[in-house]
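yo, cysteine desulfurase is done. seq:
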Amino acid sequence: MIYLDNAATTWPKPPCVLKAMTKALEEFGANPGRSGHQMSMDTAEAIYECRREAASFFGAPSPDDVAFTINCTHAVNLALKGILKPGDHVVTSNLEHNAMMRPLEALRRKGISYTAAKVEPGDDDQTIRNFEEAIRPNTKMIASMHASNVFGVRLPIERLGELAKKRGLFFLVDAAQTAGILPIHMQEMGIDFLCIPGHKGLYGPMGTGMLVTDCGEKLDTLLEGGTGSRSVELTQPLYMPDRLESGTVNTPGIVALHAGIQFVEEQGMDGILQHETELMQRFYDAICDQKEVQFYTPRPDGIHILPVVSFNLGDLPSTEAARYYDEAEVALRPGLHCAPCAHRAFGTLEQGTMRLCPSIFTTQDEVDEVINSTLKIINKL
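structure:
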């Protein structure tokens, strides 16, 4: 099988990630920070090492700013529902995943409003103007994805961070499609809340994610419980990461995520981005002249358009066309990709699209096979 569904979850995982998870299951079997015996302390140290690595990787002020979550969606919910109050307003983008839109819609029913600013692909100046025009006197936060999970459109988060700082707003970034692909430095980019999946560009296992923030003490909690700290008190600790980490953490997943971050550092994000971009350019160039093929963005360049390609074959529903690829043992993702707002913006809400996304492990030969399969499918239509 040729796996090109890496925008959902990267696969395969690096051998070092598999090895780290196995080691954690064999050696770190105790609850971290809950006991005084050696295995518990060793487990706590292993968890802290991942925290420290992540803080350094993403430019956070302190390892304690890293709270482990079950995924990126969990992190987004913690930040939005923790900081916003009735009467507040949020500016987001018109390309957001439901990880952002469903929490915002739930909050809207509780008296928190939002405006979706239009992203102009390739025109960062206009995008920034659109965001600035959406700001109201009661706006509290700019909350935006870093890049579209459907179309690869990259948003100018550096400039959005500057805008947020200028207007005295919190800034939340959903880095689901960019963590491990693009450099992110929270302090330099003015990011208050960075929401990260562990299982995508960081090559960790499913069930891992992070909310990185130095504003944790300002958040209301969604979950309270045992933290191994201040146990005599019946109120949740105010300090991070304990404030956002109740109950036993996913030690095997976190240890494996640590190995995934180290793998990305060793490979180099520039090299990963270049490799993936060249592969998607190869696919794009090979079939863009086919009259049956419909692309929705310019050729991926790794700057404005990341190596995530959405396309359709004529008027064929994307879910139906995807069956041909499945028969050819090509794994891609059809449909709406949990992002109806993005599809509405690009006019694909009815048909959906087929999405390709490579990883560091995808080869040129595999992409050539997908090109050949596409041409064969076109001939069948």
